[in-house]
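task queued by scheduler; priority normal; single chain, no ligands, no partner chains; default sampling; output format set to C-alpha cells
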Amino acid sequence: MSRRLRSSPAFHLAFTEECSALCHINGDAALAASEYDKAIDLYSVAINLDYTSDVIFANRSKAKLGKMLWEDALLDAQKVRWHLCFRSSC
C-alpha cells in the first residue's frame, strides 16, 4: 500500500470505523461474559473513535450497571437519549 493512500482521509476514516467496530464487537463479547471492566474499556475506545453511536453508549451503560456504577450508567443512558433525540429532531 502506498504511503499516499495510507495518509488519505478516506483511509483514515475506513481505519477508524473498522477499529471502532472491532472494539464494539469485542465489547459485546466481554459484556456477555460479564467482564464489565473490559467491556467498559472497549466501548470507551469505540466511543472515542466514533462518537455518534447510541448503541455503544447503551452497551457501555449496561456494563456500568453490571459494575453497579449507577451514576455513570445514568450519564451514558442520557447520552443515548440525546443521540436518539438528535437523530429524530425532537
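post-processing summary
- The chain has a mean pLDDT of 87.
- DSSP finds five helices and no strands in the chain.
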